[in-house]
Design goal:
- The complex is a heterotrimer.
- Chain A has one domain: Orthogonal Bundle (MetI-like fold).
- Chain A is built from twelve helices and two strands, in the order H-H-H-E-E-H-H-H-H-H-H-H-H-H.
- By secondary structure, chain B is of the alpha/beta class.
- Chain B is built from 19 helices and 15 strands.
- In chain B, strand 7, helix 9 and strand 8 form a beta-alpha-beta unit.
- Chain C is α/β, with parallel strands linked by helices.
- Chain C has a domain of about 60 residues.
- The longest helix of chain C is centred in the middle third of the chain and has 18 residues.
- The chains are: A mainly alpha, B alpha/beta, C alpha/beta.
- Chains B and C meet through helix 8, helix 9, helix 10, helix 12 and helix 13 of B and helix 5, helix 6, helix 7, helix 8 and helix 9 of C.
- The structure holds adenosine-5'-triphosphate (ATP) (2 copies), iron/sulfur cluster (SF4) and magnesium ion (2 copies).
- The site of one adenosine-5'-triphosphate has 15 residues of chain C, from strand 2 and helix 2.
- Chain B: One of its GO terms (biological process) is peptide transport.
- Chain B: It holds the Pfam family ABC_tran.
- Chain B: Keywords: ATP-binding, Membrane, Nucleotide-binding, Transmembrane, Transmembrane helix, Transport.
């Protein structure tokens, strides 16, 4: 337990200056969205697809007011509530897709890097092909295929997002495995009689997943954008299934011409903020984990006047 | 103390470990081989219970490889290793791993030999865990016992520490604890003290002596430091480029070194005795490239006592001439250089070396001048004839002899200066008194068609992806998918072509022998083809804007 | 430069020293406080003389070498005086000390490959470093000089246009030496130049370094772990412990008759061909953030006295030349009454090794 706490505090204790501020700012921003996501039912005054309250219909595209902080849109929905519920959708999708990526990408990379040979080469080829493929197009294709099977659910979108990011996890883990397996401690493990599985599980795993948190947070930022992009194109989650910022933006497009700015501004702002927050966390983490970028805090040297010896 | 008995515990017979070298990326694609390194080349060695055998030699002499082969960590190319009558080569993976309870290893760099993510307790205990001890408390008792044995007390202070919190000596103690915890009988110590600070070396060496006495261990002590070997070992094997060149009891080796290499090593040890003079007759040069060792005796290019039959060849001629040039002035060098021309071709080892570009007579004069400068160089004795050819001369060297290990007094030496009759086991080895045979090609059977099919198939399968990149850019810029039909056609066509190539590879690829490799390539190319085909056709349905109701109409004007 | 000339120059200590360090300190800033890696070091080096610097790991040997060169990381501070050709290099402007480096002060590192640019030919390396310090030279003159230096190191002129990776380890080290010497510096620091090399190659390099003073009349500070190398290649030796030079003098003197207990123990713990039993110094060098009071060696010293734990030993003349700082040697009159009592040592275990 203490170990975990210490490991979690490490990025703070180890950094100085910009890296530290990036990390703190990023974590604060992200935490606000996570809180919104978790407590959405409590924080949002209305449901995400609620068009009336206590029998009173909401105004159509009503400007921000006391009842509707961010106004309402043309489907009579409350923009403030939809923005908060949108955080829930975004975080759900992103967490799920990262989970899938880690569960699939890390073991694949580990096994592929450790054994090498034809399995490695084939996997590498497939993953590189996926990676080289324009990611947004890939996401479009996958969400087409998957929404047919799974419907416009969170799971379907998360899966199609995972498909674009798995190659990154695979690549990073595989490459670190390839170099880590040459380390003497792996040979030493073999010398005490450890099997391949034990070596991967107990010797390599912890040493090759170091950079996964960084990729995770950076990909999360990217995933938010992709998710919004999909929603914007009218793919993925439908507005009656869940609140989704990208989708709202799409609908707000038509409003913009008629001077209704609030339907577009708030979801857009939410996207920008969350993406910025996650990117800051990712970059901050990167600087603490990557020793070549890290600047340690040094105490200044004070030399006392020379004494006679 | 377990005094060295005569009972053999490990018996190494004619052991060879060869590594295939990888060439450049092109060579790899075509599957050709860049030669082999004979890291260990026909070694016979018997370890007797309770003794300490030293393996001494410079970098690249195969010491570590031999040590690793003892644990089955380096696969034997030829020969056998028997541990207590059991041949390691006969053991399955699981049985081999179980055997590592009995043969353990200590490494040169203690910082690298410990997993940075494991505490001392986990690291030492893991040796028990992999051998099936499940109970954590039982392991803990044994770990504490082992740590105490290696002097890491108070133990509680160390159990929870990570390697980065320990000093070099302490880390090496942890490595030793991990090695002895399974109760081994043989310990291979690969330069256990050479990375440690000088004041810590004696401590670790003392610890190893104590462990040997307490646990009755047999040591293989690998080092390049003859001083510690002299103190520590009962017998010493001097190794050079994969061979044992001299082996015998420690006292005899030091009192009476026979092989010129042993003599050189002994002379080169820096000694704190201020009365000692710097040695003046050191061997020149460095350990040669193991991938193409010198002809004849591998040590001959550096040997002070080399004879005409030691295996002289073109590379020696190059070294001789270049050495000569380090002692010439710039003008002399320029003049001589224009006579002999480029020397790079001499790097290809041969016993008939052609040099000279300005005429045979001039080249002869030049060679005479080189000879006059150092007439005692043994290489001159190794030249059979110098004949005129074209604008230069051809220097014909004598066939060399590759000496086998032969008995000489109490020791065995591999040097033509000790030509005693071979006896017993060594008789078989003297068969190798021939120049090395040309390296045999390793993987034939991959023809051009196979390579061609693979390349075409892969390009066909992957090209549409590249095309996508351009189209996405267009999509992002204009918001319109205009050229979707091109992708579809490309995808479908590429898919068909790739599938065809893959199928051909699967059924006809690989030339003479159809290695599973090529089948796998075939499968992948075919699969990629299918994927591409499906992709192309599915996009036709899916992405074609306006044909699909899903896409918002604003996006396809 | 000629051999006759150098033969004429016997190594008399009376000559003007090339470099003269006075009370040099180099401290590193860390997260825990200042590491006093070098803490008051003084020595002189005569022209053509080689001074060996030995000591356990972490005693500040490399720090001293780099400190003299001005090659220190951010957060490090140095003071004291280093007199070189009538100027104090520590108080120079950075630009001047940069100019001095390379042309007058040279450095040879342990791992040559990391100091050579893999994409540059050897010829380019030479050209760059010579041009920087002597822009007036033509290309031919540069080549001439470079080839001369290479030839002295036994590297044939045919290899002048090769890349660093085409050389073997020993050749690379000789290249580094050639590059350090091509500008004929009068003072060179060599930081463990042979540690990464094979035994025979190490002996070759030691021989080359030993020949240096004859060929170049260069003064050399040779940092090494290996007291054997000091005995073979150095005129004088300085033994460093915990940031201070505790004893220095002529090699034969110091090794035959060590005055400081640390020197003696260090020599005794060295494994050589004449080793018949293993000796070692218990414990480990102290943490230089907070070194022990009094003599820094006293917690490990087998002969420590009461005075050693409280008062800094005085730096005095060794009986047979050189300097030493240890209360055993004196000065008698500064030891307080009762100060000579044996100090009760705590038992040192492996746990104290870190
Ligand atoms: N896994 C490997 N693949 C290819 N070649 C190898 C491998 N391991 C060792 N070699 C080669 O085998 C030869 C012997 O290597 P080995 O490590 O056994 O030497 P060594 O005597 O232990 O040297 P050192 O003193 O540097 O440790 C070297 O030329 C080396 O390059
Ligand atoms: N860049 C640095 N920043 C902070 N501390 C340092 C730095 N370099 C060295 N030190 C510390 O300064 C002390 C002296 O180090 P130095 O490298 O000079 O020792 P050394 O005698 O050369 O050791 P070795 O024989 O291992 O090379 C050590 O305690 C070391 O940890
Ligand atoms: S001063 Fe004292 S403690 Fe230091 S070395 Fe001399 S005797 Fe030992
Ligand atoms: Mg080795
Ligand atoms: Mg150092």
């Amino acid at each position: 337990m203490r170990k975990v706490l210490r490991a979690m505090a490490k990025p703070f204790t180890d950094t100085t200056g910009t890296a530290r501020w990036m990390l703190v700012a990023g974590i604060v921003i992200t935490a606000i969205f996570v809180i919104c996501a978790i407590f959405a039912p409590l924080l949002a005054p209305y449901g995400f697809a609620q068009a009336s309250a206590e029998g009173v219909r909401f105004p159509k595209a009503g400007p921000p007011s006391g009842d509707h902080l961010f106004g309402t849109d043309r489907l009579f929905f409350d923009v403030f509530s939809r923005t908060i519920w949108g955080a829930r959708t975004a975080i759900q999708v992103v967490l799920l897709s990262i989970l899938i990526c880690v569960v699939v990408g890390v073991p694949l990379g580990l096994v592929s890097g450790y054994y090498g040979g034809w399995f490695d080469r084939i996997l590498l080829l497939v993953m590189d092909a996926l990676f080289a493929f324009p990611s947004f197009l890939l996401a479009i294709v996958f969400s087409f295929l998957l929404t047919d099977i799974l419907g416009g659910s969170v799971l379907a979108v998360a899966l199609s997002l995972s498909a674009i990011y798995i190659p990154q996890y695979y690549r990073v883990v595989r490459n670190t495995t390839v170099s880590a397996k040459e380390a003497t401690y792996v040979e030493a493990a073999r010398a005490i009689g450890a099997s391949d599985f034990v070596i991967m599980r107990r010797y390599l795993f912890q040493n090759v997943v170091q950079s996964v948190p960084v990729i995770g947070t950076l990909n999360a930022a990217d995933a938010i954008l992709t998710l919004a992009g999909l929603g914007f194109l009218g793919l993925g989650i439908q507005s009656t299934d869940a609140a989704e910022w990208g989708h709202d933006l799409n609908r707000a497009l038509e409003d913009a011409g008629s001077g209704v700015w609030w339907t577009g501004l708030y979801p857009g702002l939410a996207i920008v903020l969350l993406v910025t927050g996650l990117t800051l966390v990712g970059e901050g983490l990167n600087e603490t984990i990557n020793p070549t970028l890290r600047v340690r805090r040094l105490l200044p040297v004070h030399m006392p006047a020379r004494e006679e010896r | 103390m377990a005094w060295p008995s005569t009972e053999p515990i490990v018996d190494i017979r004619d052991l060879s470990v060869h590594y295939g070298l990888r060439g450049g990326s092109l060579a790899r694609l075509i599957g050709s081989d860049a030669g082999t390194v004979k890291a260990v080349d026909g070694i016979n060695l018997t370890l007797r219970r309770g003794e300490v055998v030293g393996l001494v030699g410079e970098s690249g002499s195969g010491k570590s490889t031999l040590g690793r082969a003892l644990l089955g960590l380096a696969p034997a190319t030829e020969g056998s290793i028997e541990f207590e009558g059991q041949d390691l080569a006969d053991l399955s993976g699981r049985r081999l791993r179980a055997l590592r309870r009995d043969i353990q290893m200590v490494f040169q760099d203690p910082s690298a030999a410990l997993n940075p993510a494991m505490t001392v307790e986990e690291a030492v205990g893991d040796a028990l865990r992999v051998h099936g001890m499940r109970s954590a408390s039982e392991r803990r008792t044994k770990v504490i016992d082992a740590l105490e044995r290696v002097g890491l007390s108070p133990v509680e202070l160390f159990l929870e520490k990570y390697p980065r919190d320990l000093s070099g000596g302490q880390k090496q103690r942890v490595v030793l604890a991990r090695a002895i915890i399974t109760g081994p009988s043989v310990l291979v110590a690969d330069e256990p003290i050479s990375m440690l600070d000088m004041s810590v070396r004696a401590k670790i060496l003392q610890l190893m002596l104590d462990l040997k006495q307490d646990l009755g261990l047999t040591y293989v002590y690998i080092t390049h430091d003859l001083a510690s070997a002299k103190f520590f070992c009962d017998r010493i094997a001097i190794m050079y480029l994969g061979r044992v060149v001299e082996i015998g009891p420690t006292e005899e080796i030091f009192a009476n070194p026979r092989h010129p290499y042993t003599k050189a090593l002994l002379r080169a040890i820096p000694d704190p005795d201020p009365g000692r003079q710097l040695p003046r007759d050191l061997p020149r040069g460095e350990v040669p490239d193991a991938a193409s060792p010198p002809f004849g005796c591998a040590f001959h290019p550096r040997c002070n006592e080399a004879t005409p039959i030691c295996g002289w060849e073109s590379r020696d001629l190059r070294a001789l001439i270049e050495g000569h040039w380090t002692r010439r002035s710039a003008e002399e060098y320029a003049g001589e250089r224009s006579i002999v021309g480029d020397l790079d071709h001499l790097d290809k080892p041969t016993t008939g070396a052609t040099i000279g570009s300005a005429g045979s007579a001039e080249t002869r004069v030049f060679l005479d001048r080189v000879r006059a400068e150092k007439p005692d160089e043994p290489i001159w004795g190794g030249i059979d004839a110098i004949n005129d050819v074209g604008s230069g001369v051809r220097v014909q060297f004598r066939e060399g002899v590759d000496p086998a290990l032969r008995r000489a007094g109490e020791v065995q030496v591999a040097c033509v200066l000790y030509p005693d009759e071979p006896t017993g086991v060594e008789a078989a080895e003297s068969d190798r008194d021939r120049p090395p045979p040309p390296p045999e090609p390793v993987s034939a059977g991959i023809n051009r068609r196979t390579v061609g099919l693979t390349v075409v198939g892969l390009i066909a399968a992957l090209l549409p992806f590249v095309a996508f990149a351009g189209i996405t850019r267009e999509f992002v810029q204009n918001g319109v998918l205009t050229s979707y039909s091109r992708i579809n056609v490309l995808g479908i066509l590429g898919g068909v072509v790739a599938f065809g190539c893959g199928w051909a590879l699967l059924t006809k690829g690989g030339g003479a022998e159809r290695a599973p490799w090529w089948k796998a390539v075939g499968v992948v190319v075919a699969l990629l083809g299918v994927l591409q085909f499906l992709h192309g056709s599915s996009l036709l349905v899916a992405v074609s804007p306006c044909q699909s109701e899903r896409v918002d109409s604003t996006w396809c004007r | 430069m000629s051999i006759e000339m150098s033969n004429a120059m016997s190594l008399e200590m009376s000559r003007e020293p090339v470099i003269s360090a006075r009370d040099v300190r180099v401290w590193y800033g860390t997260t825990r406080g200042a590491i006093r890696a070098v803490d008051g070091v003084s020595f002189d080096l005569a022209p053509g003389e080689t001074l060996g610097l030995v000591g356990e790991s972490g005693c500040g040997k490399s720090t001293l070498g780099r400190g003299l060169m001005g090659l220190l990381p951010k957060g490090a501070k140095r003071d004291g005086e280093v007199w070189f050709e009538g100027k104090d290099i520590l108080s120079m402007r950075p630009k001047d000390s940069y100019r001095l480096r390379g042309s007058h002060l040279g450095m040879i590192f342990q791992e040559p490959l990391t100091r050579l640019n893999p994409l540059m030919r050897i010829s380019d390396h030479f050209q760059e470093s010579i041009k920087q310090h002597d822009p007036s030279l033509t290309k031919d003159e540069i080549k001439q000089r470079a080839l001369d230096a290479l030839r002295l190191m036994g590297i044939p002129p045919t290899r002048y246009r090769s890349y660093p990776h085409e050389f073997s380890g020993g050749m690379r080290q000789r290249l580094m030496i050639a590059m350090a010497l091509v500008l004929k510096p009068s003072f060179v620091v060599a930081d463990e130049p042979t540690t990464a090399l094979d035994v025979l190659v190490e002996a070759q390099i030691v021989q080359i370094l030993n020949d240096l003073r004859r060929n170049f009349n260069t003064s050399l500070l040779l940092i090494t772990h290996n007291v054997g190398i000091v005995a073979e290649a150095c005129d004088r030796v300085a033994v460093m412990y915990a940031g201070r030079i505790v004893e220095q003098g002529r090699v034969a003197d110091v090794f035959e008759n060590p005055q400081h207990p640390y020197t003696r123990e260090l020599l005794r713990s060295t494994i050589s061909l004449r080793t018949t039993g293993l000796n070692f110094i218990p414990g480990a060098p102290p943490d230089l953030v907070d070194p022990p009071d009094g003599c820094r060696f006293h917690p490990r010293c087998p002969e420590a006295m009461a005075v050693c734990a409280t008062r800094n030993p005085v730096n005095i003349e060794r009986p047979r030349g050189g300097r030493v700082e240890c209360w055993l040697v004196g000065p008698e009159d500064e030891i307080p009454p009762g100060g000579k009592q044996r100090l009760k040592q705590e038992e040192l275990t492996v746990a104290d090794e870190a």
